[in-house]
Amino acid sequence: MSGALLVAGTTSDAGKSVLTAGLCRWLARRGVKVAPFKAQNMSLNSMVTSDGAEIGRAQYMQAQAAGVEPKAIMNPVLLKPGSDRRSQVVVLGRPVAEVDAMQYGAHKERLREVVAASLGQLRAEYDVVICEGAGSPAEINLRAGDITNMGLARAADLPVIVVGDIDRGGVFASLFGTVALLEPADQALIAGFVINKFRGAAELLAPGLDQLKALTGRPTLGVLPWKLGLYLDSEDTLALDAPRPDARAPYGRETLRVAVIRFPRISNFTDLDALSCEPGVAVRYAASPGDLADADLVVLPGTRATVNDLAWLRERGMADEVVRRAREGRPVLGVCGGFQMLAHEIVDEVESGAGRAEGLGLLPVRVTFERDKTLGRPSGTAYGEPVIAYEIHHGIAEVEGGEPFLDGCRTGSVWGTTWHGAMENDGFRRAFLADVAGVARRDFTAAPDVSFAALREATFDTLGDLVEEHLDTDAVWRLIERGVPGGLPVVPPGGPRPTDK
């Protein structure tokens, strides 16, 4: 078979990525060869495939949930914002242009062909493809050029499930309004709804589900319960605003407190997920000097705008606090863009065009931005432990001293590296945290039996369980196997609107 469906959402962060991963794990456990697909993704969280292609981190994660090798065709178009109006365009894993919002339209026809070819190739190679939309399909101002929501569904004749986040409030209005705003030909592909993040009495929800079906002619295929801790490779910073699991030990001398600076263009903040999994490690995101006051470790994470986010750090007064901490011998870690900020000099004619800029001067490093992007899956050792990581950067760091640390260096209590994902290596993570705890004079000892990979696999299985237990899987399978059911009614005011040419 060559079945497929599209998971759309009423909003960003409604649960599309998580449901897509759950459907992939559910199908994989049934022996189905399944692949994820997102035609166009706007995200600063990305990953490098084994053959050196850059794709959205969420699609990489979904492929892992499906038990298949991640490929560039699973996310053929990736947009990486560098400002509110400009983004780098990555096509089939390689950067091809830097455009503003209006210029991007000129690329759409070519990208539409790339998307169609990628989906076609996946459908030829796999039994089922679970597609994920972007944002909301009811963004009618963008419908004419859409290649990832209803534009994709129309082109490939995909049945569409719309996910709504009940925790935000107004879920029935969101689901009804999403359908009603679509033109009739788009409405004809909306096959049902899924309500996400429900907590409460199911009997109180049931009358609303009945009324929604009466109003739209479409069933609710399932109600997924609220589940704390399912923070799997989020696409955007909205996920940072959601409640996150607390450390499993109370604050005290045995708790290691980590403050991660939340840059405006923070990228690959999934680097810190492995720290959050450690018992006794409390991770929080910081946006002011006071947020750093009691931290044992301050992390400067990746960013898509190194020089501009460094200026933001200085404007906030946080740069002075980071420098003061480092000079007092308190631990600081920089990763990729954060590592570049720790250098004494940055020369950037590529990302910001700022030319020569002064870094924080905490590491003996000079950074020069190159036009060609470095994409790789490096490996090495640190603290006597093996490390497998990935790298995505334009800045080339020339290390001029200090102690070796992965591909970067360490000076006193300051560490820096361009390698993402290093903390996912259990032995290295434990050794690094032990070193930090010693410098910070904490009585913290990392748990010897925490496996990040095992925890991730357990989460995938939890997602598969949620799909099996709370979705009408027979109905979902019929959609995959048979496509869109006929005779779905039009929901007013769905009238003629601009469509794809």
What is the rounded Rg? 23 Å
**What is the fold named in CATH at topology level of the largest domain?**
Rossmann fold
Q: Report the sheet with the most strands, covering strand number, pairing sense and barrel closure.
A: 7 strands, mixed
| CATH architectural designation of the largest domain | 3-Layer(aba) Sandwich
Structural class: alpha/beta
Can you give the mean pLDDT? 92
Domain CobB/CobQ-like glutamine amidotransferase: 257-427
Active site: 336 (nucleophile), 420
Function: Catalyzes amidations at positions B, D, E, and G on adenosylcobyrinic A,C-diamide. NH(2) groups are provided by glutamine, and one molecule of ATP is hydrogenolyzed for each amidation.
Protein name: Cobyric acid synthase
Which SSEs are present, and which pair or pack?
Blueprint lengths: L2 E7 L6 H14 L4 E4 L2 E3 L3 E3 L5 E3 H10 L10 E5 L4 E6 L2 E7 L7 H18 L2 E5 L17 H7 L3 E6 L5 H10 L3 H4 L2 E9 L3 H15 L3 E6 L12 H4 L14 E6 L4 E2 L5 H4 L4 E6 L10 E4 L1 E2 L2 H10 L2 H10 L4 E4 L1 H5 L3 E4 L6 E4 L6 E12 L2 E4 L2 E4 L2 E9 L3 E3 L2 E4 L2 E4 L8 H15 L11 H19 L2 H10 L19
Parallel strand pairs: 1-9, 1-10, 2-9, 3-6, 10-11, 11-12, 13-15, 13-16, 16-18, 18-27, 19-21
Antiparallel strand pairs: 4-5, 6-7, 7-8, 14-17, 19-20, 21-24, 22-23, 25-26, 26-27
Helix pairs in contact: 1-2, 1-14, 5-7
Keywords: Cobalamin biosynthesis, Glutamine amidotransferase
GO molecular function: ABC-type vitamin B12 transporter activity; catalytic activity
Family: Belongs to the CobB/CobQ family. CobQ subfamily.
